[in-house]
Amino acid sequence: MTQAGPNSPHWRAIGRRRDHYGGEGAMIDNRTQVFDVAMKNARTIEACVERLSTMGADHELKLVAQRLSRLTFRAVPSAKQSSEKS
């Protein structure tokens, strides 16, 4: 087994990933940035749904609807978070 050093591809990939995210998980900790990414992706999904609808792709729309339905349960704030804001 080879070790990951500065010249190995594995090490370089990890280095780039850390640089891309701004260091030690800065992007993950920044709620505003994560929210912005989510909203951008939501707009993309909305455009795709409109396009699939125009194309009459009922089966694909059904699959997207099922996936989005599952996501709605995960997107509901917990009771603990709701009570803290009140």
Write the layout of secondary structure elements.
Elements: H1 9-20, H2 26-29, H3 31-55, H4 58-75, H5 79-85
Descriptive account of the structure:
The longest helix has 25 residues, at 31-55. This protein has a domain at 31-74. The chain is an all-alpha fold and 86 residues long. It contains 5 helices and no strands. Residues 8-19 have low confidence and may be disordered. 77% of the residues lie in helices and 0% in strands.
| Helix content bin | over 70%
Distance between the termini: 55 Å
Label the structural class. mainly alpha
Shape: flat
What is the β-strand count? 0
Individual helix count: 5
User: Biggest sheet: strands, sense, closure?
Assistant: none
Order of helices and strands: HHHHH
Mean pLDDT, to the nearest integer, reads 76
Radius of gyration: 20 Å
**Quaternary structure annotation:** single chain
Low-confidence stretches: 8-19
- Strand proportion, as a percent range, falls in under 5%
